[in-house]
Amino acid sequence: MTADLPEIAESPQRGMSSHLAGELLEVSMGPQHPSTHGVFRMNVALEGEVVRKLKPVFGYLHRNHEKIGENTSYLGSMPYTDRLDYFCSMTNNWAYALSVEKLAGIEVPERAEYLRIILAELTRLVNHTSLLGFLLSDMGAWGTPLMYAFRERERVLDLFESLSGSRMMCDYMRFGGCRVDLPAGWMERARQIVDGFPRFLDEFEELITGNEILMARTQEVGKLSAALAVNAGITGPGLRASGVNYDIRKVDGYGIYPRFKFRVPLGEHGDCYDRLMMRVLELRETIGILHQAMDELPEGPIINPKVKIRAFKPPVGEAYGRIEAPKGELGFYLISDGTGNPYRYRVRPPSLVNLTILEDMCLGHTVADVMVILGSIDIVMGEVDR
Amino acid sequence: MESIEEMKARAEQAISGARLEIVPNPGPAGQPSLLLDHEHAFAVANFLRADPALRLDYCSNVTGVDWLDRTVKKKVKVKKLVDGVEKEIEETQEEFFPGYLEAVYHVYSIEHKHGPVVVRLRTRDRAEGAPLPSLTPVWRSAEFQEREIYDLYGIHFEGHPDLRRILMWDEFTDFPMRKDYREPDDYEYEPTPHDEVLEKAKQHYAPRPAEDGAEHLAAD
Amino acid sequence: MIDESLKGELQKQGIWVTSMQELYNWGRKNSIWPLQFGLACCAIEMIATAASRYDLARFGGEVFRPSPRQADLMIVAGTVTKKMAPQIVRLYNQMPDPKYVISMGACAISGGPFKQGYNVLKGIDRYIPVDVYIPGCPPRPEALLHAFMELQRKIDGQKLSGASQAEFLKENTPSEYPVPAFGAHDLEPPANLDVFHPPAIERA
Prior knowledge:
heterotrimer; A: Cytochrome-c3 Hydrogenase, chain B; 2 domains; 16 helices; 8 strands; about 10% strand; B: alpha/beta; Beta Polymerase, domain 2; 5-stranded mixed sheet; two-stranded antiparallel sheet; flat
């Protein structure tokens, strides 16, 4: 099941390890290391600098979210979903609200659907920008791209704060709509920020695209074939970088996404450079969706008035709902036994499943490449461990 | 995509001896599931992935569920002899469903862009290390998720390439997500407890000293 | 200590008068090097504090060191799980004296929203001594800056000699704490009773 070991080229640096035979050196990378993906550990067996075996170890942030979900009401679990993928709280909330709406057959009014799309796409902006910042600082750019990325992120977080009261843990979606309506002046500020975003992207692209260090470190590194990606359950930009056209916004058409015109960028080689560029291209598409949604936003109620907020008891049954979160497919599986607490509450995290082929992608590469590959997969430990 | 009854019929035809069952799903979601038997689960999963009409090549989610022993009371009308006359009386009958552990797979097709098909596997009982066939050789995305079910529920997946604990540390012996798991007692300091937490915190409260004048105060 | 007005007069003449303790504490408090150690969501707010908008660098916390041997502040940002607790204590042991701990966020103080669980440690102060606690979930970057300034005030007030000497200078204060081991059901020991002194609650 693991990939065949690629040939070691006879270049001076690499030739050394093919002539010296010895034991494999076991190194533990993490759980505390400067790459800020969280508490993640990799047990790597090295021959010189080349990786021969890699086993990921996690669970250092296992906060028994699913057990808490069984002991809490449906609404009480909503703030916990914020803390799963802590960069993208709005999309986590939407995935959970979508699953409960599927479980109980609840409809959502139009204004709420448009608001959900606006906030989800703003979250996608935040996530992809932060990822570019983190990946570049992992590669040794010493924090400068991260500062640029966080500058943009702060602007969007101001919007979230004026809308929901909190910068990161918004807890904004409810079953059947949204919690609170837009305050005065929010739409104008959002438009300003979205209009100014392409200029930031151009500035960023000028800094990184064509940069020879970036290209040397990410091209031909961590190649992932389409067949292996599909079988291993990779979703999100990683899957599309390998050339597979599968975007849940187009496939499932949840919410009112079928009304929006946007393209799905696809990669050719499936290496780290493609995964990086995939996010840049998706950011451009996201801006198009945002413009369209902000222009078409109708008036109306923001929550379905027939749904009980407190003492909410869905009918007996089960449902699996999923959305295209910025990191991949985020799904919630709920089994209801008719009471106010779910019988089984399960989160399907994109980061956990995307880690399945980390070993395959890293074999034959050097230790320095491992950090680039891990950064390009885009994991966050709150999701992997829950 | 064809209906679940058609899928069941074709699978039973393709793999001789396979016994599939449709588990209905009450409620508005409309996602019924296919229950597989242990001996033929691997073959059926391969069929689902390879069949040209289905091509279910992407396993999205693998979940473990713990069902405890349940006793369901039903009111049943029974004919009985009362004073020599046959009458219909309402009786309460109890039906006992033994508990089991379950693994639920949600599979989609990326090629045909349809899904989900829900596949279930049930253990015979709730013993520790209850075996189930592993579907990781069919769908690689189940690798970490089946390890998680082993870690948290105790289901032993036969055929899994690397079955060991994933979220808890290796020396841990319990299976925490089971419904009858009791967590360790570290409730020494709870500033604002209520309900169950209050009961657990009360174990740690120091007994009230005998002579502090409180006995002269009226009870609240 | 020298009279403040005398100090002012001398300063106008270009003569600075200070004491060893003031100088030592001034140097230490304005160049705290935090350990780059984030666990969960609070870590993102910590990074946002170090970013350009809320700028931790102007307080001296510019350089986040990845290695504990070179750091003197550990900001425990995020949920401390039982699986991670031994590593945190080990990292604390590897830091050289004088060292400080800021417990950031509800999870690091007492387990936070994830308190009822089998893998969450109810507060990092069960194993290592904590200097400043920041409540919040997550605390705003301004709260972290406020805590940083509190820590600077605490360092300023630490005396080098005398009866109320700072803890790290005393003979019998340990600089390393025992690392908990993984047991079959829980960590062993569940708390370090030399360090963990919760206030006793009396209720009717």
